[in-house]
Amino acid sequence: MQSSSQKPLSLAQQEFLDRALRVNQAGELAAVLIYDAQTPPIVRQNPQLKDLMKHMYDQEANHFQTFNELVAKHRIRPTLMYPVWRVAATALGWSTAVMGREAAMACTEAVETEIGEHYNRQVQTLFKWAQDVEAKGGQVSGEMKELLGTLRRIRDEELEHLDHAVENDAKEARPYEALTGVIRTGCRAAIWISERV
Ligand SMILES: [Fe+2]
Ligand SMILES: [Fe+2]
């Protein structure tokens, strides 16, 4: 039950959230699979990275579970591209890991740059909604506050991964520009498609 001061979401807002949760679920599935594929070759060559790889994997697994639960709770249809992203993410993780530590880290740097911005846009949109509701004397629902908090936390964790990648020589990858350029373009395309299909 909503109290009278809580404004229900408009249809456009509802649709925005459906799209956002669908694309976030797909992105986090991809993140889990990338680290899953990268970890064995990377840790074999660089045992010192075992804890870092596990730390990032564990956070991605938590993000994935978070969006799985939200998608199920709001009965949102997962993207039809799900099986395609599974294959693409595993291939990306495996191939960058085989290229070496620097390429694997450049992959994380590229992905997290796009995903950090992606979550940031969602945080800004929800924050604006909350401000509008409060400006009209209404009350932001607990659910909306919680979602905003969740998105902020996940965004910060993605940006933490980005920092780890740079600290671990992502910029030394060769060819750095081509590799990160291709991965960033791929991420943007995957986001665009997952929001629509
Ligand atoms: Fe994530
Ligand atoms: Fe991440």
TrEMBL record:
Component of a multi-subunit COQ enzyme complex, composed of at least COQ3, COQ4, COQ5, COQ6, COQ7 and COQ9. It is found in: Mitochondrion inner membrane. Binds 2 iron ions per subunit. Its EC number is 1.14.99.60. One of its GO terms (cellular component) is extrinsic component of mitochondrial inner membrane. It is a peripheral membrane protein. This is 5-demethoxyubiquinone hydroxylase, mitochondrial. Its main location: mitochondrion. It holds the Pfam family COQ7. It comes from Microthyrium microscopicum. Signal peptide: none annotated. Fe cation 2 binds at E60, E112, E158, H161. GO terms for molecular function: 3-demethoxyubiquinol 3-hydroxylase activity; metal ion binding; oxidoreductase activity, acting on paired donors, with incorporation or reduction of molecular oxygen, NAD(P)H as one donor, and incorporation of one atom of oxygen. GO terms for biological process: ubiquinone biosynthetic process. Fe cation 1 binds at E28, E60, H63, E158.
